Amino acid sequence: MVTAATAASSLVYAAPAPQRIVLAGLVTEADRYAAEWLTLIYTEAFRQLGVALEIRNYPASRASAEALAGNVDGEMVRNLEYQEMQQVLVRVPEPTMFVTTASYVHRPDVTPAAGWEGLRDTRYHVEYRAGYMVMGKKLAAVVPAANLTSVRSAQLGLRKLALGRIDLYVDNIEVVEPLLSSDEFRTLGIRQASVIERSAVYCYLNRKHADLAGRLGVVLKKMRESGLIERYRRQALADSR
After folding, report:
1. Kind and range of the H or E element at 136?
2. Beta bridge partner(s), residue 57
3. Are 125 and 168 in contact (CB under 8 A)?
4. Predicted confidence band at 15 (pLDDT cuts at 50, 70, 90)?
5. What percent of the chain lies above the pLDDT cut of 90?
6. Are 198 and 98 in contact (CB under 8 A)?
7. Is the CA virtual torsion 207, 87, 200, 38 positive or negative?
8. CA 94, 96, 97, 100 torsion: positive or negative?
9. In terms of DSSP H, where are the helices of 49-191?
10. Nearby residues of 195 by Cβ (< 8 Å), 6 or more positions away
11. What are phi and psi of 90, to 5 degrees?
């Protein structure tokens, strides 16, 4: 016989959503297009969940440190494989967006092949943005250690590329392409040389917010299916020009 006490004990209650969430961002105002797109997406998503959002932008390596220390509630965008590299955060089940990783060159004689394998045993000096652990791990698997370095920001990587201090700069096109249209870089002759990978990126939240992560995934899926995320992309792109 099922008693009222037994029935009550079998119920699973969702944890109440926090009133406020602080997310670490990996982009800065200099990365205007990507920064605005992400801000539009997450502001609306958390609004629908009734949660106030604060975004604190850090270099990628600092964002990881802040999240792992519990100083922020999560990170705005990381790759699928990021889950394997830490134990403090949980991945929101629905991707926020899809990004494309590419290589950029300045010299006309630098012509890498496509994909990660296109960089295997390369003689070129390759650089990527510090703190992008998944990207760094994949590059380290194909690029000789002596030829691989990291740099603090996309802007600095592109400056070093233009000056001939590196041969290839690897980053996401969503960050680099708007920079190449800016006054500083548009006349320098930097070009995209190869597409390396297209992949999904996800929000990660502290494990104490695991229930909220599931609900955020539902909201992001609805926003994508309704076309709202794409509308935000077009808005951010127009505003960055």
Report:
1. helix 133-140
2. 25
3. yes
4. low
5. 75
6. yes
7. positive
8. negative
9. 60-68, 133-140, 154-162, 173-180
10. 100, 101, 102, 114, 115
11. -115, 145
Place of tokens 């680099």: 176
Conformational region of residue 169, where left means phi above 0, alpha means psi within -120 to 50, and beta covers everything else:
beta
Which token pair is 102?
């590419």
Is 192:172 a contact under the CB 8 Å cutoff?
no
Residue type present at position 220: L
pLDDT tens per residue across span 136-180: 999 999 999 999 999 998 999 999 999 999 999 999 999 899 899
CA pseudo-torsion sign 62, 136, 78, 241 = positive
The pair phi, psi for residue 99, each rounded to 5°, is -125, 160
Backbone phi, psi, residue 168, to 5°:
-140, 135
Residue type, position 211, single letter: D
Residue 169 token pair: 């700069």
Q: What's the token pair of residue 84?
A: 């394997």
